[in-house]
Amino acid sequence: MDDDGLLYRVYERRLTRELEAFSLPQHLGVIVDGNRRWAKEAGETTEHGHRAGAAKIVEFLSWCEDLKIPLVTVWMLSTDNFSRPPEELVALYEIIASTVGQIAEAGYCVRLTGTTDALPESVRENIAQIKEQAAPESELTVNVAIGYGGREEIVDAVQELVRDLGSQGRTPEEIADAISIDSIAEHLYTRGQPDPDLIIRTSGEQRLSGFLLWQSVHSEYWFCETFWPGFRRVDLLRALREFCRRERRYGA
What we know:
- The protein has a single domain (22-149, 193-245), classed as Decaprenyl diphosphate synthase-like (Undecaprenyl pyrophosphate synthetase, 3-Layer(aba) Sandwich), CATH 3.40.1180.
- The protein contains nine helices and six strands; from the N terminus they run αβααβαβαβαααββα.
- The chain has helices at residues 3-19, 35-42, 46-66, 86-105, 121-133, 150-167, 172-178, 181-185, 233-245; strands spanning 28-31, 71-78, 109-114, 141-148, 198-201, 220-223.
- It has a six-stranded parallel beta sheet with strand order 3-4-2-1-5-6, sandwiched between helices.
- Strand 3 (109-114), helix 5 (121-133) and strand 4 (141-148) form a beta-alpha-beta unit.
- The mean pLDDT is 93.
């Protein structure tokens, strides 16, 4: 091991020890951004960037498992991504299905966060089959956000809530009165789960782009310049250390 590698390991161990005194996030969200720019800087194809990013997701989840973080939401494909060039999407769909399979094979509980309606039928069937074979219970649950948009999630939740209330024979006035923060939350994709404590976004972009728009009202954010394929375990540890040092005010 060279001197740089040794220093890196020493720093990583020090960060890990620091975190032992704190309570880590119970729900961690991550916006995996920068695959294409990473590939461009490396002189590689966009597909290569997406494959490197997918491999990093599996590695990242292993770090979370080691740290005993029980819930992670990974944004793999947004609704805006459907406007990308068809040739990029074809490769991306295959990569996503393969990555979901690897997550399931690692023994994690897989939950879909989003909608697969816009995906090709073969990809939808593949993901559905993977979900059926995934571990129903695990120390780590992974929400895989595919075809996800924060506004779309809220619309879907309200529509589902109104349909449920309407099926009970309620009047429009009664339906309106029954719509509340709690009733909408019960129809979100993440129903029954805690809101994210910390959201990480890579690539230097400092915006949420609609990620977990409803659930992130009291979340802490951590942005880093590193493109997602270059994200390291030490970057995660630094994000967690920063989170642990903050005084959470929950809007107060």
